[in-house]
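Input sequence (538 aa), recorded before submission:
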Amino acid sequence: HYFIQSNLRSMDDEIRKSAGNYPLHDNLKYSYGTAGFRCRADVLEPAAYRMGLLAALRAKTVGSRVGVMVTASHNPTPDNGLKVVEPLGEMLLSEWEEYASLISNTPSNSVLEVLKDLAEKIGTDLHSTEGGVVIGRDTRTSGPAIVAAVTAGAENLKCSVDDVGVCTTPQLHWIVKQGNLSLPHTMADYYDSFSKSFISLYGIPDTVKSIKVDCANGVGACALAALSPLISQYLDIQICNDGSKGELNERCGADYVKLKQCAPHGVSSADREHCYSIDGDADRSLFFYYCDGKFSLLDGDKIACLYAGFINKLLKDAKLDLNIGVVQTAYANGSATSYLSGQGIPTSCVPTGVKHLHKKAEEFDVGVYFEANGHGTVLFSGRAMEAIHKAAETQQDVAARQLYSFTKLINTAVGDAITNILAIETILSLQSMTAESWDAIYRDLPYRQLKVAIKDRNVIETCDAERKVSAPAGLQEQIDALVSTVAGGEGRCFVRPSGTENCVRVHAECATQELADELAAKVAEMVLQFTDSLHSKL
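Predicted structure, token format:
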């Protein structure tokens, strides 16, 4: 009894003391959003310490290991962020997002009380020894200090910490999931598992294909450098923008390529050469190539269609009665949705954010989800895995065996740029498809995306899976009027607050690129004027 009481006092004292080392910044409010916390790295440590406490609380609540990834993905170098990973690799539950925002904005002298109140509310024993926290970070120089703050919080709550060091976001998700399933889960296991799965399905090529990957000067370069030697007899990966010279995400990376619709700086490619661009934490991948000098981008929509078409054919060939569906967001190109409909593959539209896509994809036996920005993966239900595994073992059918091998090539925990590159190259090879033939399955409606910096992104509220503005009043009517005026009604445009930056994103689609550019520019200008006027009245 004396030992327990002494331990309680020790933990309380440590939290009170450490919380005082991480005071909140004046006039700064943290908000846990779609991608966790994102802000300037120099003001993130107070939230990081408190997130260490929250992650430890979550681990004790579920009795399993949870993850904390320190990254700001495609944001500029001065930024950083962090997010909590659930035991099976999912994003943090919505209810716990509220807890994250609550405790991260709690003054140091109240942190212990708020933590105890949360524990009592959810029925968690703060002194449980179950669970643990796994921490990873990208290559930003601000990362170690933020990891130290997270570690301090978790250890103050007497929770074990496993710091895996520099890794991609998908690798951390995979490590957490695999570990909780009592499966091999080290970084070495990651490379071993996916390289062997790739080799098994890809087969021995007549010639070794060479591809180029723009790594955004980020952590993806580290992952590819470790993976490449394991598959070099099958695929030659040339790493571009590896961080040795350029700045993280500066004129490179998937976000830049998607937004600017041009090749990243630092990558020169021959005609029809397969090229990829990934983002700063390697959970997004886009494909691009040149044909007779013309740049062509194949985004998340094209990847989703490639995956869905390949899987759907294998399901039919293997005579497996499993349903397949593709989950999209408002950013999905209208032509992609029409193509899938023509193939008899149902689609669903959900709000932007992996947690929304992932949840919807779980409703299918085989759920393919991709955001247009290149973030996505494939989920296989327990029923689907059982049926596919059984067919692969009992049938002499090639389709069933290929489908089973494909399930092992996909990182089902979360979208993974590295494994998706391997999967794309495998599908193209097995189906004898070129970049041009893949690109030609449908033609994108011309589009333009713009970012509008405003004082407070939260003044914009949306509905209908973010395809319509619900607040402020009158804004959607003005957007509709511009669509009618510029595009004659033959187009669409939506605006939504960014989940990672203090800006509003504008997306316009029209029959021609000129009209899409004009519509996006006019809507962006109108949104800026509308919100400026709104702020002046407040």
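Checked by second reader. The first helix runs from residue 2 to 20.
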